[in-house]
Specification:
This protein is of the alpha+beta class. It has one domain: Photosynthetic Reaction Center, Chain H, domain 2 (Alpha-Beta Complex). 18% of the residues lie in helices and 30% in strands. The protein has a six-stranded mixed sheet. Strand 3 and strand 4 form a beta hairpin. The chain starts with a helix and ends in an 11-residue tail after the last helix. This is PRC-barrel protein. InterPro entries: Bac_photo_RC_H_C, PRC-brl_dom, PRC_barrel-like_sf. It comes from Serinicoccus chungangensis. Pfam families: PRC.
Amino acid sequence: MVTYEQLGEMYDAEVVDHYGHKVGGLDQVYLDNGTGEPAWVSVRTGWFGGRKIFCPVSNAVIRDGHIEVPYPVDMIKDAPDIPCDGHLTEDEEEQLYDYYSLDEGPAPSG
């Protein structure tokens, strides 16, 4: 599991999918309210980082200076548009859990 400290040192690092395809640059780390562990990151995508999207990081790894997540780039870029304004509401989190087919909690089910 990637720690908050590790992710904090990776600000602006590239987030890549499990095939090494670039998703975008790391923007912010969001912690699970219950565990305090990193659960989500916002990723800047598009021209000049114009769009920010959420991606789960519970099964992410840091490899060669990148953050590798176990989801395909197209899936991540098609994630629901949820404002990256500092806190996820329960409804927003539920949308993301549903979209990424995650069980309630920080760990992906697949």
